[in-house]
């Protein structure tokens, strides 16, 4: 049976670490200049309803490096659900390709795509989740610290797709996740309660970001206004103003803490230049690791 990657919950604890091991190996091989093409002759259809830098480039380059090819389908090409029903697109694309990666607005659309496609579907971000991002982020921490378990991770800002995927990870791997989130912007209720019920991780929500970053070994943030929420930008700037990751906030965390951001960043809003470009920041290492981790996911699903 085909396997999709729509959420981190689609993976078991063991599968997460198998992907990390493979990502590390693929990264080392690439740095050595080894050619490795297990996806020779295979194609990935990439459907984008929203803009992208990292997701698009890392998937396209990743497929090329593995010997395959990626087909970019932008917002004006397929027009999912407008020009044609999601189910018909899924069935048609399945006849030409070996896999689908999609970045969509509604999470229900990626579920439908996966239901009707008979090839693996990978979630490249929806309004609800961003699993490739958080898997690559967790790999980045694992690679740098040697372990993820029981690490103090503080997520500061909007309880949106990236935060929801962190909660999914917390329901699989034991971490201490402190969320510093203003009232009204909490993560998805069901995902939060599922993560808490799993009893794997310690999860706490704070309304004061200083409390959330206390002892944090990782501080993570994301934009205050996500793609599709542009009309709320001014209101959000007001409501999130005390949740900026600046040098002062970082000073309350562990002195060796790592600062992460999925990017793109709105410099001067959720994070200051001095933090993003400062000694704690590992944002470009995490961006690079999207490539290695997604190659591992592609190998696991497409071979
Ligand atoms: N972090 C991330 O997914 O970046 P893009 O939106 O540029 O793909
Ligand atoms: N929360 C952001 C993540 C971008 C990678 C968004 O959805 O726009």
Describe, in short, the structure shown.
The chain has 303 residues and is α/β, with parallel strands linked by helices. The chain has twelve helices and nine strands.
Offer a few descriptive terms.
alpha/beta, 303 residues, binds phosphoric acid mono(formamide)ester, Rossmann fold, 12 helices, binds norvaline, 14% strand
Structure description:
The chain has 303 residues and is an alpha/beta fold. The protein has 2 domains: 8-130 and 290-302, Rossmann fold (3-Layer(aba) Sandwich); 133-286, Aspartate/ornithine carbamoyltransferase (Rossmann fold). Helix content is 42%, strand content 14%. The protein has 12 helices and 9 strands. It has helices at residues 13-32, 54-65, 86-96, 107-116, 131-145, 161-170, 189-197, 209-213, 233-239, 247-251, 273-276, 283-302, and strands at residues 43-48, 69-73, 99-103, 121-123, 152-156, 176-180, 202-206, 218-221, 258-261. It has a 5-stranded parallel beta sheet with strand order 7-6-5-8-9. Strands 2-1-3-4 form a 4-stranded parallel beta sheet, sandwiched between helices. Helix 7 (189-197) links the parallel strand 6 (176-180) and strand 7. Helix 2 packs across helix 12 (283-302), helix 5 crosses helix 6 (161-170) and helix 6 (161-170) runs parallel beside helix 7 (189-197). The longest helix is centred in the N-terminal third of the chain and has 20 residues, at 13-32. It is globular. It starts with 12 loop residues before the first helix and ends with a helix. The relative contact order is 0.16. The mean pLDDT is 98. Bound molecules: phosphoric acid mono(formamide)ester and norvaline.
């Amino acid at each position: 049976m085909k396997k999709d990657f729509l959420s981190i919950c689609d993976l078991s604890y063991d599968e997460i670490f198998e992907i990390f091991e493979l990502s590390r190996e693929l990264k080392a091989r690439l740095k050595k200049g080894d050619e490795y093409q297990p996806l020779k002759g295979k194609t990935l259809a990439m459907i984008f309803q929203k803009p992208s830098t990292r997701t698009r480039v890392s998937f396209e380059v990743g497929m090329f490096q593995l010997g395959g090819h990626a087909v970019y389908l932008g917002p004006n090409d397929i027009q999912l659900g407008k020009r044609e029903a999601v189910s018909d697109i899924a069935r048609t694309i399945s006849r030409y390709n070996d896999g689908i990666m999609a970045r969509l607005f509604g999470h229900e659309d990626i579920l439908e795509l996966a239901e009707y496609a008979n090839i693996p579907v990978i979630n490249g971000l929806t309004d609800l989740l961003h699993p490739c991002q958080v898997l690559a982020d967790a790999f980045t921490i694992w690679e740098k610290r040697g372990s993820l378990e029981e690490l103090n991770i503080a997520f500061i800002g909007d309880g949106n797709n990236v935060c929801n995927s962190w909660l999914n990870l917390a329901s699989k791997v034991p971490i201490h996740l402190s969320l510093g989130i203003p009232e009204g912007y909490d993560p998805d209720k069901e995902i939060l309660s599922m993560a808490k019920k799993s009893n794997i991780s310690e999860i706490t929500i704070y309304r004061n970001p200083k409390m959330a970053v206390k002892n944090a070994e990782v501080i993570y943030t994301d934009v205050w206004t996500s793609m599709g929420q542009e009309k709320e930008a001014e209101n959000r700037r007001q409501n999130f103003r005390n949740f900026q990751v600046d040098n002062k906030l970082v000073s309350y965390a562990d002195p060796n803490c790592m600062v992460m951001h999925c990017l793109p960043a709105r410099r001067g809003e959720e994070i200051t230049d001095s933090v993003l470009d400062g000694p704690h920041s590992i944002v470009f290492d995490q961006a690079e690791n999207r490539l290695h981790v997604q190659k591992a996911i592609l190998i696991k699903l497409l071979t």
